[in-house]
């Protein structure tokens, strides 16, 4: 069986043999881009080439890109651990043409790599092509369909809608049709039962998109009209963990050697057997997913904090701690130990983890211990709130706010726990309570000139419950540098 390290290496070597320069992943954390906190696709770091702001140094490149999809346009957080193929942090393998090759080579090489190099069974692959959109004056991507026909029976080339198969950078700018490759992992019996049905985009968890080939063909002008780009580009992205699943013949990303070392470690330490109980399985999957996001964020310089990107990381961490506490019985810090496993796993490709291992562990452990201090009480309080609101099945805004303010429960964690119990949360009320608290704090500390000063609200960050002891509930702000 091909292991994950070999799968990644094989991808890069394959595209190198096709004249691509192998480039490093951009950092997971994006600095200086007001529109993006974290890298969420391989193409992010090449945006300026597509926009024509810069000229690419090499016309063909390939890489594996660390991605995080927990905010903004791509937010997969709610899926993670519930399904078996969406992660917070994942690697996106990609190859690019900057005004060089176009649809034919992209399609031929994708097919060659998957079926001849990785030896995926051809009769389990499906592809989608853009079906066109009359309203937008766009024709079906017949070109792509014709290139696919050389390789695949026509009944497995599936026309698909603009939603999934037409990519646009924004309201204006480069755009074009995509062609996705999906793999059908169902058993032969299952497949026989539904034969004849279109098998892609049907929400069957065992028919999974693995690779997206984007053909940047047009430029959308300010008036909405399209013109053909003078230089056309290819942008592809393939989920590395999904690819490993397909190649290793598994039905879940978590059954591959990307995740198994962590899963087995968590199972052993918690005394649970993975694969026997849905609730503990989800918890194990969530934790082994989340620790990757946390580890890579810290390795790339984003520490957990109460502000912006740092708060996203803190939320993910607290979410994982609580899954461990509630479903696996971890009452002490445990996640930091998983960093060792990640460090071994990524030593060749992402040395930033190996090099900073001890630091990452220290940060994670501290974060865990901080949250564990208030977690148990917070969970009791949320139980009480649910009991109090049994009639409405909705936790009140002020209650959710007090959970975050006093016990460090991020709103989405309160929502998650509420949802597990069939409850909702009054978000509007929460926002209102937070606003009131801010105003009170501002009034109270207006003349405070100590370490913690209140300045213009836009320039401050909430550092709240971090330094909290039970009798000192003071909201604190500090200047953002
Ligand atoms: P999906 O429809 O499964 O959510 P997507 O269409 O949003 O995927 P793309 O933006 O096309 O994904 O990204 C390219 C590839 O990255 C996908 O084909 C998939 O293999 C992989 N991928 C996307 N999101 C995730 C994720 N959250 N976790 C793991 N792999 C992912
Ligand atoms: Mg998606
Ligand atoms: Mg998709
Ligand atoms: Mg896609």
TrEMBL record:
EC number: 6.1.1.7
Gene Ontology biological process terms from the UniProt entry: alanyl-tRNA aminoacylation
Reactions that this protein is recorded to catalyse: tRNA(Ala) + L-alanine + ATP = L-alanyl-tRNA(Ala) + AMP + diphosphate
Entry's cofactor comment: Binds 1 zinc ion per subunit.
Domain Alanyl-transfer RNA synthetases family profile: 2-481
Superkingdom: Bacteria
Swiss-Prot/TrEMBL keywords: Aminoacyl-tRNA synthetase, ATP-binding, Coiled coil, Cytoplasm, Ligase, Metal-binding, Nucleotide-binding, Protein biosynthesis, RNA-binding, tRNA-binding, Zinc
Cellular component terms per the entry's GO annotation: cytoplasm
MF (Gene Ontology): alanine-tRNA ligase activity; aminoacyl-tRNA deacylase activity; ATP binding; tRNA binding; zinc ion binding
Localisation: Cytoplasm
UniProt cofactor(s): Zn(2+)
Record remark on domains: Consists of three domains; the N-terminal catalytic domain, the editing domain and the C-terminal C-Ala domain. The editing domain removes incorrectly charged amino acids, while the C-Ala domain, along with tRNA(Ala), serves as a bridge to cooperatively bring together the editing and aminoacylation centers thus stimulating deacylation of misacylated tRNAs.
Function: Catalyzes the attachment of alanine to tRNA(Ala) in a two-step reaction: alanine is first activated by ATP to form Ala-AMP and then transferred to the acceptor end of tRNA(Ala). Also edits incorrectly charged Ser-tRNA(Ala) and Gly-tRNA(Ala) via its editing domain.
Family membership: Belongs to the class-II aminoacyl-tRNA synthetase family.
Protein name: Alanine--tRNA ligase
Whole-protein residues included: 1 to 481 of 871
């Amino acid at each position: 069986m091909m292991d994950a390290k070999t799968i990644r290496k094989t991808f890069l070597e394959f595209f190198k043999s096709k004249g691509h320069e192998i480039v490093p992943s951009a950092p997971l954390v994006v600095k200086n881009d007001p529109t993006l906190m974290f890298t969420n696709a391989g193409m992010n770091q090449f945006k300026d080439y597509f926009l024509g702001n810069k000229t690419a140094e090499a016309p063909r490149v390939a890489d594996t890109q660390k991605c995080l999809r927990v905010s903004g346009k791509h937010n997969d957080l709610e899926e993670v651990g519930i399904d078996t193929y969406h992660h917070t942090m994942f690697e996106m393998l990609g190859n690019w043409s900057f005004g060089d090759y176009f649809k034919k080579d992209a399609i031929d090489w994708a097919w060659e790599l998957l079926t001849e190099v990785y030896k995926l069974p051809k009769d389990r692959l499906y592809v989608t092509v853009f079906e066109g959109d009359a309203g937008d004056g766009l024709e079906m991507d017949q070109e792509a369909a014709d290139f696919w026909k050389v390789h695949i029976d026509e009944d497995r080339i599936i026309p698909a809608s603009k939603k999934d198969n037409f990519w646009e950078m924004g309201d204006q700018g480069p755009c074009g049709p995509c062609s996705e490759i999906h793999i059908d992992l169902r058993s032969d019996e299952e497949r026989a039962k539904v034969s004849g049905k279109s098998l892609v985009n049907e929400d069957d968890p065992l028919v999974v998109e693995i690779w997206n080939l984007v053909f940047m063909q047009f430029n959308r002008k300010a008036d909405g009209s399209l013109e053909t780009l003078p230089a056309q580009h290819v942008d592809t992205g393939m989920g590395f963990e999904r690819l490993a699943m397909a190649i290793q013949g598994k039905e879940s990303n978590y059954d591959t050697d990307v995740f198994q070392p962590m899963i087995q470690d968590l199972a052993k330490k918690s005394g649970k057997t993975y694969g026997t109980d849905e609730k503990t399985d989800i918890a194990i999957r969530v934790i082994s997913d989340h620790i990757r996001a946390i580890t890579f964020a810290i390795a790339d310089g984003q520490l957990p904090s109460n502000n912006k990107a740092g708060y996203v990381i803190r939320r993910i961490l607290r979410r994982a701690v609580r899954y461990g506490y509630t479903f696996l019985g971890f009452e002490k810090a445990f996640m930091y130990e998983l960093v060792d496993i990640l460090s071994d796993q990524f030593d060749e490709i992402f040395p930033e983890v190996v090099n900073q291992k001890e630091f990452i562990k220290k940060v994670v452990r501290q974060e865990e211990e901080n949250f564990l201090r208030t977690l148990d009480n917070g969970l009791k309080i949320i139980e009480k709130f649910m009991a109090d609101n049994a009639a409405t099945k909705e936790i009140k805004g002020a209650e959710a706010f007090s959970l975050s303010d006093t016990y460090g429960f991020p709103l989405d964690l309160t929502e998650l726990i509420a949802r597990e119990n069939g409850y909702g949360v009054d978000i509007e009320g929460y926002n209102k309570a937070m606003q009131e608290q801010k105003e009170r704090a501002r009034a109270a500390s207006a003349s405070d000139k100590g370490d913690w000063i209140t300045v213009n609200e836009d320039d401050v960050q909430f550092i709240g419950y971090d330094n909290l002891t039970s009798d000192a509930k003071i909201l604190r702000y500090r200047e953002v540098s």
